[in-house]
Amino acid sequence: MRLFSSLCLLLLALLSVVSGRSAVGDRVLVILEDESQKGLYSKFWADLEDRDFKLSFESPRNEQLSLFRHGQLAYEHLILTPPKSKGYGPTLTPKILLDYVNAGGNVLLGLSSESGTPSAVSSLLLEFDISLSPDKHSIVVDHFNYDKVSAAEKHDVLLVERPGQLRPDVVNFFGGEGTLAVPRAVGQTLGPAIPLIAPILKAPMTAYAYNPGEEAQSVEEPFATGSQLNIVSAMQARNSARFTVLGSLEMLQDKWFGATVQLPGGKTSKTVNQEFVKQLTEWTFQEVGVLKVFSVQHYQITTASEPSQNTTQIWEYNPEMYRIKNDVKFSIEIGQYDRTHYVPFVVPDTDALQLEFTMLSPFHRLPLTPSTTTDNSTIYSTTFTTPDQHGIFAFKVNYKRPFLTPIEERHQVTVRHFAHDEWPRSWAITGAWPWVGGLWSVIVGFLLFVLLWLYSEPPKEEIERRRALSVSTS
Predict the structure, then answer these.
(1) Which pTM value belongs to this model?
(2) pLDDT of res. 19
(3) Could you list the residue ranges forming a coiled coil in this record (predicted)?
């Protein structure tokens, strides 16, 4: 009976894992200070629940709130709405939120210019090299790309096209057609020193950030302008945890999902905020863009010496030692998580997956090409010859691209010299034939000389002359 109950519990656990859309878990904690604002985002909550996420709403004032339970994450995902006080309280300090990210938790941070940005939030973002305006109520405006219906005077509802591809070698998880309505956004700037951060949605070229509380008619020194301003930014840590900064939390409200907006030229269109927000949360909660290495193999290959044998012979898999000038094959199996399951990972045509065979510096840097495809993965492989250098080497695959979980595989091996019985014989080396021939010619010549000396008798006249000379002298 106990065995049957254990099997049932195991089956239920497996079913719960399969039913979840995220690669890491389905528990979401929503920090919402004002409970009355929950109804403004009903479509957003419903979309998350339709994707099998389990939402828990808590107030930052709850002293019993904790992101960890028994040393593990209590929630895999966290949604932070703008606080009305100076911060999120003692249970959600910047230190605790950093520990949460370091433990692998995903965070969606929403900002709003109406409620202001507390200094605790600004200091948290500075840890990721994401900067906000020193004015807590700074807002992004654009006098050329705004909604004439809802922002005819303040021009603070931006109309932005959906983001394009960041770089030719980067997968675009947020693209598409349509117009986004971005009401009362808080702009961010990204530092150039950290490659872990990337912009998702940038402000138009004619936008700028300023404090509406200032009475000046013109802004002389704005915080940032044009494409320097980011409306949505992302940070992906080395442990694959994802932190997304949404400059306008109002984008998630029901009234902006499919709303009718009007450009200054008079053209009207429907907003695609709902589709964009779905793409944004899919990436933040690790439903897409998650890479997994299923296996890594390397082995020595040799060509058969006899025609009756196989053309290629494989030695043991993943050995710890190779010899110089060995032919080696390396392969890595990679899958990409796509909402419910893993699919084969395909490297973009403008990008390359590479293998480095390195000691202190790479001796080989080779492209890995797809050799086999399974239902859930793609096997990339390459073949090369170990260098004529002994020492400690490593197979290294370092693939890091924005919006994809990083791949960093390193397998150490030893490369040795030839053993004494592995060197080719002298007669097998054509370049040694003159030296071998010279050696044997000396030996044969010496033997012929000895034979000639031993068996050649001097003339009889010479013998008699020497004998008579010896008698006369005596």
Answers:
(1) 0.83
(2) 44
(3) none
Alpha helices in 90-152 (DSSP H): 94-102, 119-126
**Under CATH, which architecture does the 290-422 domain have?**
Sandwich (2.60)
Q: Look at residue 116 in the predicted model and tell me its pLDDT.
A: 80
Q: In this structure, what token pair is assigned to residue 33?
A: 């200070």
The predicted pLDDT at position 212 comes to: 78
- Residue 54 pairs in a beta bridge with 27
Strand stretches in 347-425, DSSP E: 354-358, 362-367, 369-373, 378-385, 391-399, 407-416
From the number of C-beta atoms within 10 Å of its C-beta (0-12, 13-18, 19+), residue 250 rates as buried
Q: Taking residues 210-214, report their average pLDDT.
A: 77
CA angle 21, 23, 26 (to 5 degrees): 55
Residue 322 token pair: 């190779």
Run of H or E including 56:
strand 54-58
As a whole number of Å, the end-to-end CA separation of the chain is 127
Has residue 293 got a pLDDT over 90? yes
Strands 27-31 and 54-58: parallel
pLDDT at 318 over 60: yes
**Same fold flag, 16-214+222-286 and 290-422:** no
Q: Which CATH code fits 16-214+222-286?
A: 3.40.50.880
pLDDT of residue 314: 66
Q: Which of 352, 407, 342, 348 is nearest to 373 (CA)?
A: 342
Which residues sit opposite 439 in a β-bridge? none
Phi-psi region of 444 (alpha: psi -120 to 50; beta: other; left: phi over 0): alpha
Q: What's the rounded Cα separation, in Å, for the pair 218 and 223?
A: 13
Q: What single-letter amino acid sits at 14?
A: L
**14: pLDDT strictly greater than 70:** no
Angle at 105 between CA 102 and CA 109, to 5 degrees: 105
